[in-house]
Amino acid sequence: MKKTLATLIALAFAGLAHADEVQVAVAANFTAPMQQIAPAFEKATGHKVVAAFGATGKFYAQIKNGAPFEILLAADDETPAKLAKEGAAVAASQFTYAKGKLVLWSAKSTIVDAQGDVLKKAGFDYLALANPKLAPYGAAAIEAMKALGVYDTLAPKFVTAENIGQTYQFIKSGNALLGFVALSQITKDNQITEGSAWIVPAKLYTPIKQDAIVLDKGKDKPAAAALMKYLQGDAAKAVIKSYGYEL
Amino acid sequence: MNPADLAAVWLTFKLATLVTLILLLVGTPIAWWLARTRSGWKGPVGAVVALPIVLPPTVLGFYLLLLMGPNGVVGQLTQWAGIGLLPFTFWGLVVASVFYSLPFVVQPIQNAFEALGDRPLEAAATLGARPLDAFFSVAVPLAKPGFLTATVLGFAHTVGEFGVVLMIGGNIPDKTRVVSVQIYDHVEALEYAQAHWLAGGMVIFSFLVLLVLYTLNPTGKKK
Questions:
Q1: Is the pTM of this model over 0.90?
Q2: Could you report the predicted ipTM of this complex, rounded to two decimals?
Q3: Closest partner residue to A159 among B69, B70, B170, by Cβ?
């Protein structure tokens, strides 16, 4: 009985090893485009994508501690560079797959005006943003508010979420009237899907360059190389742009 | 530890103390009823009380966020009552924690009440004690080990709460940034040294709490 079980388990793992799978750690803000790109990639190449979505800082810790990811689609360019420097990723493979745009957003249609003046009036209880220590969009939001000179008045109203996925949830549920999220989260087919939004001018914050990199475990894996190539192709680029990223 | 860490520790202590007190007040009648009733509602009520044991805290947190938000039933009620909205407030955490730790307080007390059986109360009644008198002077003292377990577990479980707080807290210093969230932030920001101070402290605290519980309340020796 024990032997059969062991054989079964061994077979199951052998099966996994042979399938052309690529395990990708994806920044939370890139969830929706990735969910559209992955099936297209699978159809085009026959490889299978296994994606995990979450905060880049968490992925860093997991990768450093043996997580099985082969590619990292980070929310910044520093984490991939750091991993490469520490020998956990292939430096030559790093490229910018998307440039994120910061947006001030409310789920209600009348709250955020086209100039973002709502920040100066400060007539709200809570302003949601991603934890600036952990998430690039949170850090960008802080930078923008400082540039606008509203940081000190708004700081007591901050509610910080673990990542921008949760920031979105705080605002969407109405618990925070407005907050800073990624344009990609509220954009589909080149249009803002709901609520009111102000796209924060790019000059107010350091560009959010989101870089991809092949990790140690993805080195020499054909499926990983194929996905990196696919992300730089026109089909993927069109999807990425349609979600409000720049390239 | 830096001041932010100390603030988180103090806040956690305040939260857990308050929640434990509320739970002893609310949980005892529920436990009594569950232990004594022959009503068909015993099953459903017991199941609802036990839900937080099996539900992932994120589920609880997610629904509390929606329920207590401006579009939720509870949120509309609190706004109508002039309290405002509960998410991102200390009292929001208190309410959430009461739900979250409810089974850890109700079940030990209920077990203790059930273990009493009918005889001590019948004896009290024969001696002329009214039900309420019998409850306080017979049932509660006899169920003391159950109350001790309930107090310790309710407190410790609230201290260890994380998922729910993450969902409805908003990580505000002195209001909703409790120790578990602070540890999480340190780990995420790769500040491992600071994380160890708090995380190691939690391990020691939890061990001591359980040690006290098992020393004062040895299991397997129930009469």
A1: no
A2: 0.76
A3: B170
